[in-house]
Design goal:
The chain is of the alpha/beta class and 329 residues long. 36% of the residues lie in helices and 17% in strands. Helix 7 crosses helix 8.
């Protein structure tokens, strides 16, 4: 087992990458662990994991994905396709002077981590997936699937497709919008069964925030935390983040050669029992013996929502470090 090293302070830096510039935050020394955030977040969503992994003897690195935070934000919509994000991750590992890394992702970061491991097994020796299960490339065109969901309501991924449409809802009050979005998918503040589902909007004039819960913030999110997230998006706008959704059909085409492909490396999955990502994709979890043959650690956390490493930091840290330690044996 790798011996823990004393925890060091957070170090901010930027590296050159296909995106132009990637901002990252690192802590600790030892085997490299790359942490990839989801929507709508930043490196800051790993603030509870960086010191824990550093203390456990790892070089923990959390990046701002292209389009987010202090990383570059290319103007072209197709600059946010999965193939480009994977190459950003490869470039980051190389720029850090490493040959290999363990990659761990949450939400969209889970998909980015999975694609990175699938396309570059020589770089990413193991993969951890939080909240969003692995489903191999293939199947019907994504936008066709999303368009059929919801009946007389529109699924949020479809709502995000048209450039400018979702931005017009979010950007006039980013702090308020983010607070509502985080609350809508947190275990302690999400709508109760029977209330309107915040993953859908009315097809005529609907907004996502119409279904967000009001009132207090989730227990994991302080006013200061919300200020950090809101400050980043008030500076960058939401287009870079939303462009990830606008490339799902391109990804489907780009990754067609990998249709049905399993990820062979050692893998970890942690999901929240109350997270729609876990429940909607239960079939993908059931298929893990075929799609993740290297799965060595799989957990569903009772009473947990979508923001798993922030809702349950101690539990996630314990599961992550135990799994990482097992890779060193």
């Amino acid at each position: 087992m790798h011996q823990p090293a004393p925890s060091a302070d957070l170090r901010h830096r930027t590296i050159e990458a296909p995106a132009g510039r990637l901002h990252l935050v690192e802590q600790g020394t030892g085997p490299l662990v790359l942490l990839v955030h989801g929507f709508p977040e930043s490196w800051y969503s790993w603030r509870r994991q960086l010191p824990a992994l550093a203390t456990a003897g790892y070089r923990a690195v959390a990046l701002d994905v292209r389009g987010y935070g202090r990383s570059s934000k290319p103007a072209a919509t197709d600059a946010y396709r999965m193939l480009d994000l994977v190459e950003d991750n490869v470039a980051l590992v190389r720029a850090l002077g490493e040959e290999k890394a363990v990659i761990v992702g949450h939400d969209w970061g889970s998909g980015i981590a999975a694609a990175s491991a699938l396309l570059h097994p020589e770089v990413f020796r193991a993969v951890g997936l939080l909240s969003v299960p692995y489903a191999p490339p293939g199947g019907p065109r994504p936008t066709d699937v999303f368009a059929q969901m919801g009946g007389d309501q529109e699924f949020y991924v479809s709502y995000f497709q048209e450039p400018g449409r979702a931005e017009a809802e979010m950007e006039p009050d980013l702090r308020g919008w983010l607070a509502g979005f985080y609350a809508a998918m947190s275990a302690d503040t999400m709508p109760t069964p029977g209330e309107p589902d915040p993953h859908f909007v009315a097809r005529t004039g609907g907004r996502l925030r119409d279904r967000f819960p009001g009132g207090s913030l989730p227990a994991w999110l302080t006013e200061d935390d919300l200020d950090v997230y809101a400050g980043e998006f008030e500076r960058t706008g939401m287009t870079g983040a939303l462009n990830r959704y606008r490339n799902m059909d391109r990804d489907w085409e780009d990754l067609a050669p990998y249709g049905g492909a399993p990820i062979e490396q050692p893998s970890l999955f942690i999901g929240g029992a109350l997270d729609a990502s876990t429940t909607w994709m239960a079939d993908a979890i059931d298929a893990y013996p075929a799609t993740l043959p290297g799965l060595t650690s799989s957990h569903i956390l009772d009473g947990c929502g979508h923001w798993i490493q922030q809702e349950r930091p101690e539990e996630v840290n314990r599961l992550l470090t135990s799994w990482l330690d097992s890779l060193q044996d």
